[in-house]
Amino acid sequence: MTVETALLNADPDGYASAAELLRGGALVAFPTETVYGLGGDATNDMAVARIFEAKGRPRFNPLIVHVDGVETAQEFVEWPHEADVLASAFWPGPLTLVLPIKAGTGISGLVTAGLPSLAVRVPANPVARALLREFGGPVAGPSANPSGRISPTTAAHVAAGLGGRIAAILGGGACDVGVESTIVGLTGAPVLLRPGGLPAEAVEQALGAPLARHGAGDAVTAPGQLASHYAPGATVRLEAERREPGEVLLGFGQVACDLNLSASGDLTEAAANLFAHLHALDETGQPIAVSPIPDRGLGRAINDRLRRAAAPRE
Predict the structure, then answer these.
(1) Beta-bridge partners for 7
(2) At what angle do helices 126-135 and 12-23 cross, to 10 degrees?
(3) Neighbouring-strand partners of residue 168
(4) Are strands 95-100 and 28-31 parallel, antiparallel or unpaired?
(5) Residue ranges of the chain with pLDDT lower than 70?
(6) pLDDT score, position 42
(7) What is the CA radius of gyration of the chain?
(8) The model scores a pTM over 0.85
(9) pLDDT value of position 233
């Protein structure tokens, strides 16, 4: 069923309209510092089901819930000492914590995909924070794109992927970080479940201990762990020193290319540009080659997204 997707401004009227739509079980895309999220009332089974339907997302893939602060998060999850440490250091910001879910919270079972844990974060983007305050409840918010495709970092990306499937898009400019949040599991020993916009080294420094790592063959316990994900329509070839005939090249550093993630080799700039550049190159209809990216700091998150983009399609 096609619906008219409204474009809302980031102003009091826009926040009020977006919150009213969420209360009615409709879906509203909104900006965060990482990527645009597809928001639905996390306590409303029908709203959450609509998220999966709009995205074509597998039901076994859990969702991140966005809340307005630590006290709200503590209403829904158990809160160990490590959560205090990481929330104090990095919230609001691009860090998601997976924690044991409390009983009787009202969170839809579809959000957790039947797992005994909940992924929760406090976004830093002022538009997202204003919407959460206006709505006054938890908002389930995976990336606002068709499942498995390139994540959106502008309202135009959302409209191109989900226009006609969702009620509204709350505008807010381009996303600053440009890759999804880092996800850390705290249902046992701290484990890195997904690299993202906060370097794992910073998390380890705050905890004073190394993180365990989620293995490629391990069960899905958090969003963004599917082998094929974040993919353009075109094929993607990694570690490319040069473009082959018929390819376009996504460069990094001092290299002749069609688009450059960061000519100066800045990984923060590269992360911010990643999805927007993939969108632009995908529009050429040509295969995409990608220059080598250093596998350190934010480079780990970039390489994680690129490996999933290049994986065989599911």
Answers:
(1) 169
(2) 50
(3) 6, 28
(4) unpaired
(5) 1, 216-230, 313-314
(6) 98
(7) 19
(8) yes
(9) 86
